[in-house]
Amino acid sequence: MPILSALIILSILGGCLVLLVPASLERWSKHVAFFTALLIFTLAIALFLRFDSRAPLMQFVERYPWIHSSSIHVDYYLGIDGISLLLILLTTFITPITILSSWRTIEKQIRAFFALLLFLQAGIIGVFAALDLVVFYFFWEVMLIPMYFLIGVWGYERRVYAAVKFFLYTMAGSLLMLAAIITLYFYNGAVTFSLPDIVANVQQRSLILPGGVEAFLFLAFFLAFAIKVPLFPLHTWLPDAHVEAPTAGSVFLASILLKMGTYGLIRFCLPLFPRSCIKLAPVAITLAIIGIIYGALVAMVQPDVKKLIAYSSVSHLGLVVLGIFSFNVEGLMGANYQMLNHGISTGALFLLVGILYERKHTRQIRDFGGLAHVIPIYSSFFMITTLASIGMPGLNGFVGEWLILQGSFLANRQAAAFATTAVILSAVYMLWMYQRVFFGTLSESNRLLSDLKLREYAILVPLVVMMVWMGMYSATFLRKIDVSTARIVSDIDSIRQQISPKIYRVRR
């Protein structure tokens, strides 16, 4: 079986197997889910090792007829480049960790919960691997269902409100994207939904979209992806979803689902609508900068640790969008790397908050203080993750932020100056939160808190190892995306030369 399909099918079969565990043995369903996720992660590592970093084309391609008639041609078409490779690796790395984090906290409908995690993984891998627009849309929509139930059934007090809000926001953007996909199909001669084929027609000028049509199509795709990022002012669903979701749901949201938005901008908007991207880049950059500053300022005043981390994601993902619309190798490579960094460090923060919530049953900052005196090992893990989140040199966040700021400085110095505030403000709200939670006066109610247990070490150690590895040996991952990002930037370069040949200077 081809390896990409194997990743998706094994996730689905694993989820079905979990559901088939007898009710009398329900607690064993988590073991089935965990070992299935480990198997899939092992396959993803094999995919990573077999990937040829020097090849400019999509690899591990699978293409079979799916929906074919006289008027429609949809293929089951999968393939990956370096960008999607690393996001699939991130997805399969995070899934067994989230399963382990839910080992003792999920006490009702255990089989359904762990099955939904595996189904969610299948949908996400499909999104990152799909090369047919209809297949991409199929996986994009399928992914909504398990996430909706994870929030709505196993979340906290306002879980139903948060789940419905998440679903409606994403669905609204998705329907616009579907209209754009159908329009693009007919403008391309109603021949194929294949993304590589349509992109090739755009580059060869055999597909020329009228200015107004291209702008509409770009905005439809952009809106769908901006909601998922989420980009200001479309971010309001995120804090509610994060706060009300169970720990596993929050980790999936922060680590993977938000990256689907930025991935969509890179994979679809840039190659399909390069002229609209260039013309409307100032708008995207302005929204990104507003999100960077707004998210940081709002995070600074949050009384709830989980909501603080949620708003930090608005700020960090705004920085990623800024890197994407810098249109140079440094900015785009930094954006890709920062997607991975954010997935590791912010996912770890939500896991750490979940561990603390299991012991204290509160997330309010005012209920803590002096925890470093009673749970020093936990406090040390939290400090390392905090430093990674704010971009401390030697940890993963530094590399991505530095590349993005370098790329944005080369493209737009004013934007880079505003974006630099993200580094300063993130240090302010994260370190201030850490100081209030872990230092100061220790209350009597916190004296009996226990430090990390073996299962929690198993959750956190791999994440901290990755933070250090990605900070010290970033070439391990940057080599995989080098050719892919260079190709995208080269295609944008050629369009920019056509638009402004006198003032544009090609940068290599």
Give structural attributes:
508 residues, mainly alpha, two-stranded antiparallel sheet, 2 strands, 73% helix, globular, disordered C terminus
Overall geometry: globular
Radius of gyration: 22 Å
Strands in their spatial order, largest beta sheet:
1-2
**Element-level helix/strand string:** HHEEHHHHHHHHHHHHHHHHH
Query: What fraction of residues sit in β-strands?
Result: under 5%
Largest sheet: 2 strands, antiparallel
Overall mean pLDDT score? 89
Total individual domains? 1
The structure class reads mainly alpha
Poorly predicted spans: 502-508
Please work out how many helical segments DSSP would assign: 19
Query: What's the total count of β strands?
Result: 2
Please estimate the helix content. Answer: over 70%
User: Termini distance?
Assistant: 40 Å
Describe this structure in words.
- The protein has 19 helices and 2 strands.
- The chain is globular.
- The longest helix has 32 residues, at 329-360.
- It has one domain (3-499).
- Strands 1-2 form a two-stranded antiparallel ribbon.
- Helix 15 (376-389) packs antiparallel against helix 17 (413-438).
- It starts with a helix and ends in a 9-residue tail after the last helix.
- It has 508 residues and is mainly α.
Task: Give a short synopsis of this structure.
The chain has 508 residues and is mainly α. It has helices at residues 3-19, 29-50, 82-101, 110-129, 133-142, 144-154, 159-187, 195-203, 211-228, 237-244, 247-272, 274-300, 305-324, 329-360, 376-389, 396-411, 413-438, 454-472, 475-499; strands spanning 59-68, 73-80.
